[in-house]
Amino acid sequence: EVQLVESGGSLQQRGGSLRLSCAASGFTFASYAMSWVRQAPGRGLEWVSTISGPGSSTYYADSVKGRFTIFRDNSNNTLHLQMKSLRAEDTAIYYCAKLHISPDGSFESWGQGTLVTVSS
Amino acid sequence: DIQLTQSPSTLSASVGDRVTITCRASQSVSTWLAWYQQKPGQVPKLLIYKTSTLAGGVPSRFSGSGSGTELTLTISSLQSDDFATYYCQQYNNDPWTFGQGTKVEIK
Question: Which of A81, B2, B47, B54 is packed most tightly, with the most Cβ within 10 A?
Fold first, then answer.
Protein backbone atom coordinates (compact mmCIF):
# COMPACT_ATOMS: atom_id res chain seq x y z
CA GLU A 1 0.00 0.00 0.00
CA VAL A 2 1.31 3.43 -0.95
CA GLN A 3 1.94 5.66 2.04
CA LEU A 4 3.03 9.29 1.91
CA VAL A 5 3.64 11.08 5.20
CA GLU A 6 4.45 14.78 5.16
CA SER A 7 6.16 16.67 7.94
CA GLY A 8 7.78 20.02 8.59
CA GLY A 9 4.85 22.40 8.39
CA SER A 10 4.71 25.15 10.99
CA LEU A 11 4.07 28.85 11.67
CA GLN A 12 6.72 31.03 10.05
CA GLN A 13 7.33 34.74 9.74
CA ARG A 14 7.15 36.41 6.37
CA GLY A 15 10.54 36.14 4.71
CA GLY A 16 11.43 33.02 6.63
CA SER A 17 12.46 29.56 5.45
CA LEU A 18 11.08 26.09 5.96
CA ARG A 19 11.78 22.59 4.71
CA LEU A 20 8.98 20.12 4.14
CA SER A 21 9.58 16.40 3.92
CA CYS A 22 7.55 13.47 2.64
CA ALA A 23 8.40 9.90 3.65
CA ALA A 24 7.27 7.41 1.02
CA SER A 25 6.67 3.70 1.28
CA GLY A 26 4.84 0.88 -0.45
CA PHE A 27 6.26 1.45 -3.95
CA THR A 28 9.56 1.75 -5.80
CA PHE A 29 10.16 5.39 -4.97
CA ALA A 30 12.92 6.08 -7.49
CA SER A 31 10.70 4.95 -10.36
CA TYR A 32 8.09 7.66 -9.93
CA ALA A 33 7.98 11.39 -10.36
CA MET A 34 6.73 13.18 -7.27
CA SER A 35 5.03 16.51 -6.70
CA TRP A 36 3.93 19.05 -4.15
CA VAL A 37 0.42 20.44 -4.43
CA ARG A 38 -0.95 23.05 -2.05
CA GLN A 39 -4.35 24.25 -0.94
CA ALA A 40 -4.86 27.57 0.77
CA PRO A 41 -7.57 27.63 3.47
CA GLY A 42 -10.99 27.39 1.84
CA ARG A 43 -9.48 27.52 -1.66
CA GLY A 44 -8.79 25.18 -4.55
CA LEU A 45 -5.79 23.08 -5.46
CA GLU A 46 -2.57 24.58 -6.81
CA TRP A 47 0.29 22.58 -8.29
CA VAL A 48 3.61 23.73 -6.80
CA SER A 49 6.44 21.57 -8.11
CA THR A 50 7.37 18.21 -9.65
CA ILE A 51 10.58 16.22 -9.74
CA SER A 52 11.41 13.27 -11.97
CA GLY A 53 12.16 9.83 -10.57
CA PRO A 54 15.96 10.14 -10.82
CA GLY A 55 15.75 13.75 -9.61
CA SER A 56 17.39 15.15 -12.71
CA SER A 57 14.41 17.23 -13.86
CA THR A 58 12.43 19.71 -11.82
CA TYR A 59 9.45 21.92 -12.58
CA TYR A 60 7.94 24.83 -10.66
CA ALA A 61 4.87 27.01 -10.66
CA ASP A 62 5.68 30.63 -11.45
CA SER A 63 4.40 31.63 -8.00
CA VAL A 64 7.25 29.75 -6.28
CA LYS A 65 10.01 29.74 -8.91
CA GLY A 66 13.25 31.02 -7.47
CA ARG A 67 12.02 30.66 -3.88
CA PHE A 68 11.23 26.95 -3.54
CA THR A 69 13.46 23.98 -4.36
CA ILE A 70 12.23 20.42 -4.73
CA PHE A 71 14.65 17.57 -4.24
CA ARG A 72 14.59 13.91 -3.32
CA ASP A 73 16.69 11.28 -1.58
CA ASN A 74 16.01 8.03 -3.38
CA SER A 75 18.20 6.07 -0.99
CA ASN A 76 15.88 7.05 1.87
CA ASN A 77 12.61 7.28 -0.09
CA THR A 78 12.11 10.89 0.89
CA LEU A 79 10.88 13.95 -0.97
CA HIS A 80 11.64 17.47 0.19
CA LEU A 81 10.55 21.02 -0.50
CA GLN A 82 12.89 23.79 0.62
CA MET A 83 10.93 27.00 0.94
CA LYS A 84 12.57 30.44 1.23
CA SER A 85 11.39 34.05 1.25
CA LEU A 86 8.00 32.91 2.49
CA ARG A 87 5.01 35.10 1.78
CA ALA A 88 1.56 35.29 3.34
CA GLU A 89 0.13 33.78 0.16
CA ASP A 90 2.21 30.64 0.73
CA THR A 91 -0.07 29.79 3.64
CA ALA A 92 -1.64 26.45 2.75
CA ILE A 93 -1.79 22.75 3.34
CA TYR A 94 1.04 21.20 1.34
CA TYR A 95 0.37 17.75 -0.06
CA CYS A 96 2.99 15.34 -1.29
CA ALA A 97 1.70 13.41 -4.30
CA LYS A 98 2.90 10.41 -6.28
CA LEU A 99 2.42 10.64 -10.02
CA HIS A 100 1.18 7.87 -12.21
CA ILE A 101 3.78 6.02 -14.23
CA SER A 102 5.24 8.26 -16.93
CA PRO A 103 4.07 9.87 -19.16
CA ASP A 104 0.83 10.28 -17.22
CA GLY A 105 1.01 13.31 -14.96
CA SER A 106 -2.03 12.76 -12.79
CA PHE A 107 -1.62 12.54 -9.02
CA GLU A 108 -2.32 8.94 -8.16
CA SER A 109 -1.73 9.04 -4.40
CA TRP A 110 -1.70 11.86 -1.88
CA GLY A 111 -0.37 12.30 1.63
CA GLN A 112 -2.44 13.77 4.43
CA GLY A 113 -0.74 17.14 4.06
CA THR A 114 1.22 19.46 6.33
CA LEU A 115 0.09 22.98 7.20
CA VAL A 116 2.31 25.95 6.53
CA THR A 117 1.22 29.26 7.99
CA VAL A 118 3.09 32.44 7.14
CA SER A 119 2.36 35.39 9.36
CA SER A 120 2.91 38.96 8.30
CA ASP B 1 -0.52 28.87 -18.99
CA ILE B 2 -3.62 26.78 -19.67
CA GLN B 3 -6.61 28.07 -17.74
CA LEU B 4 -9.27 25.55 -16.77
CA THR B 5 -12.81 26.75 -16.11
CA GLN B 6 -15.26 24.37 -14.52
CA SER B 7 -19.01 24.74 -14.83
CA PRO B 8 -21.07 24.94 -12.88
CA SER B 9 -19.20 26.17 -9.79
CA THR B 10 -21.95 24.76 -7.59
CA LEU B 11 -24.46 22.10 -8.42
CA SER B 12 -27.48 21.06 -6.36
CA ALA B 13 -28.70 17.55 -7.08
CA SER B 14 -30.59 14.66 -5.58
CA VAL B 15 -29.59 11.07 -5.04
CA GLY B 16 -30.15 9.20 -8.27
CA ASP B 17 -29.64 12.22 -10.52
CA ARG B 18 -27.33 12.16 -13.51
CA VAL B 19 -24.72 14.87 -13.02
CA THR B 20 -22.33 16.38 -15.56
CA ILE B 21 -19.46 18.74 -14.80
CA THR B 22 -17.65 20.47 -17.65
CA CYS B 23 -14.02 21.54 -17.73
CA ARG B 24 -13.15 24.04 -20.46
CA ALA B 25 -9.52 24.72 -21.27
CA SER B 26 -8.08 27.93 -22.71
CA GLN B 27 -6.12 25.77 -25.18
CA SER B 28 -6.04 22.10 -26.05
CA VAL B 29 -5.04 19.65 -23.32
CA SER B 30 -5.40 16.74 -25.75
CA THR B 31 -6.59 13.94 -23.43
CA TRP B 32 -4.17 14.72 -20.60
CA LEU B 33 -6.80 15.55 -18.04
CA ALA B 34 -7.64 14.14 -14.64
CA TRP B 35 -10.56 14.49 -12.24
CA TYR B 36 -10.34 14.50 -8.44
CA GLN B 37 -12.90 14.31 -5.66
CA GLN B 38 -12.37 16.07 -2.36
CA LYS B 39 -14.65 15.84 0.64
CA PRO B 40 -14.46 18.41 3.47
CA GLY B 41 -11.42 17.85 5.64
CA GLN B 42 -10.15 15.06 3.42
CA VAL B 43 -7.35 14.58 0.93
CA PRO B 44 -8.12 14.80 -2.81
CA LYS B 45 -8.75 11.45 -4.44
CA LEU B 46 -7.97 10.64 -8.06
CA LEU B 47 -11.10 9.52 -9.90
CA ILE B 48 -10.18 9.58 -13.59
CA TYR B 49 -6.96 10.08 -15.53
CA LYS B 50 -6.20 10.50 -19.20
CA THR B 51 -9.72 11.87 -19.69
CA SER B 52 -11.61 8.60 -19.33
CA THR B 53 -9.61 5.95 -17.44
CA LEU B 54 -11.04 5.15 -14.01
CA ALA B 55 -8.54 5.03 -11.17
CA GLY B 56 -8.43 1.88 -9.08
CA GLY B 57 -11.47 1.29 -6.89
CA VAL B 58 -13.55 4.08 -8.42
CA PRO B 59 -17.19 3.08 -9.01
CA SER B 60 -18.31 2.68 -12.60
CA ARG B 61 -20.99 5.35 -12.18
CA PHE B 62 -18.15 7.84 -12.76
CA SER B 63 -17.07 8.45 -16.33
CA GLY B 64 -15.02 10.98 -18.25
CA SER B 65 -15.09 12.07 -21.86
CA GLY B 66 -14.00 14.71 -24.31
CA SER B 67 -10.74 15.98 -25.70
CA GLY B 68 -9.09 19.21 -26.66
CA THR B 69 -10.72 22.11 -24.87
CA GLU B 70 -13.96 20.64 -23.54
CA LEU B 71 -13.97 17.66 -21.22
CA THR B 72 -16.63 16.31 -18.91
CA LEU B 73 -17.09 14.26 -15.77
CA THR B 74 -20.39 12.42 -15.49
CA ILE B 75 -21.87 10.66 -12.50
CA SER B 76 -24.59 8.42 -13.89
CA SER B 77 -26.60 8.06 -10.67
CA LEU B 78 -25.54 10.30 -7.81
CA GLN B 79 -25.06 8.57 -4.48
CA SER B 80 -24.92 10.11 -1.01
CA ASP B 81 -21.18 9.42 -0.89
CA ASP B 82 -20.64 11.59 -3.98
CA PHE B 83 -21.47 14.94 -2.40
CA ALA B 84 -18.09 16.63 -2.59
CA THR B 85 -16.01 19.11 -4.56
CA TYR B 86 -14.61 17.97 -7.90
CA TYR B 87 -11.53 19.37 -9.62
CA CYS B 88 -10.17 18.88 -13.12
CA GLN B 89 -6.42 19.06 -13.72
CA GLN B 90 -4.48 19.28 -16.99
CA TYR B 91 -1.02 17.88 -17.46
CA ASN B 92 -0.58 18.52 -21.16
CA ASN B 93 1.49 21.65 -20.58
CA ASP B 94 3.80 22.97 -17.88
CA PRO B 95 2.63 24.52 -15.60
CA TRP B 96 0.06 21.91 -14.63
CA THR B 97 -3.16 23.61 -13.62
CA PHE B 98 -6.40 22.82 -11.83
CA GLY B 99 -9.90 24.06 -12.38
CA GLN B 100 -11.47 26.13 -9.62
CA GLY B 101 -13.65 23.25 -8.45
CA THR B 102 -17.32 22.28 -8.62
CA LYS B 103 -19.16 21.72 -5.38
CA VAL B 104 -21.91 19.10 -5.62
CA GLU B 105 -24.49 19.77 -2.91
CA ILE B 106 -27.59 17.97 -1.74
CA LYS B 107 -30.76 19.46 -3.23
Answer: A81
